[in-house]
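Saturday, quiet lab. Running sequence design on the structure tokens for the scaffold JK sent over.
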């Protein structure tokens, strides 16, 4: 940056200081997206050090996973919610990449997660994707992929409306039938691979479970799960 540009940047940041995505305090020089205090003191779970963590337990007896992880504990009205809001509703896509990098740095030291081949984001609803223009989980996946030496596989797992005939179904079954389902477009590519399925927040785990069920139909596929936050 030349001197003139730098003066201009300083002047602009005086008027409109960049705010920390988590605590919303003004950032100082050399801070980007997150302030130093938040970077070190956000509610990290350290689940990469605990195989039987509470996210992994969500899937016990439901789907067969290798490992599960969430970067943060979600605190409503707090810093993690601020960050996710910036990521999802304020166009701050780089936050997803940054959090993916931070999570990837932790997971790269874990002997299960460091064998991941492909990272697959949970697909957004079509309508949401059109409104937002990006999938926040894909940004997280990209950040993870950098650190895990893996590839992001975005368009292989998709949401579709169920097309099964609804004529002779019970009312409940009809309702079920109207739900979106997940489909794998190219299962061949995922054969025998270790897939890391990622989403922004895990609450009940039902979406991740539905995606996981489909992925596990692929021959020899191993599945792990990672999210930005775990909400109780
Ligand atoms: Zn902060």
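Result came back. Writing it out in full:
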């Amino acid at each position: 940056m030349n001197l003139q540009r730098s003066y201009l940047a300083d002047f602009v940041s005086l008027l409109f200081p960049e705010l920390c995505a988590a605590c919303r305090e003004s950032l100082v020089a050399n801070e980007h997206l997150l302030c130093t205090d938040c970077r070190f003191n956000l509610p990290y779970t350290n689940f990469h050090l605990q195989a039987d963590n509470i996210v992994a337990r969500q899937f016990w007896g439901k789907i067969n996973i290798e490992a599960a992880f969430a970067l943060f504990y979600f605190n409503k009205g707090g810093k993690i919610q601020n960050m996710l809001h910036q990521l999802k509703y304020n166009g701050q896509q780089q936050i997803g990449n940054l959090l993916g990098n931070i999570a990837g740095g932790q997971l790269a030291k874990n002997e299960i997660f460091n064998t991941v081949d492909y990272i697959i984001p949970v697909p957004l609803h079509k309508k949401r994707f059109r409104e937002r223009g990006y999938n926040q989980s894909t940004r997280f996946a990209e950040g993870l992929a950098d650190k895990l030496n893996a590839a992001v596989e975005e368009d292989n797992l998709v949401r579709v409306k169920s097309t099964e005939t609804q004529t002779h179904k019970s009312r409940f079954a009809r309702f079920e039938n109207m739900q979106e389902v997940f489909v794998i477009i190219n299962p061949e590519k995922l054969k025998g691979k270790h897939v890391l399925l990622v989403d922004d927040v895990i609450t009940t785990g039902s979406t991740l479970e539905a995606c996981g069920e489909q992925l596990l139909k692929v021959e020899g596929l191993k599945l792990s799960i990672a999210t930005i936050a775990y909400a109780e």
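Notes for JK: The CA atoms of residues 11 and 17 lie 9 Å apart. The chain has a mean pLDDT of 90. Ask whether to fix the surface positions before the next round.
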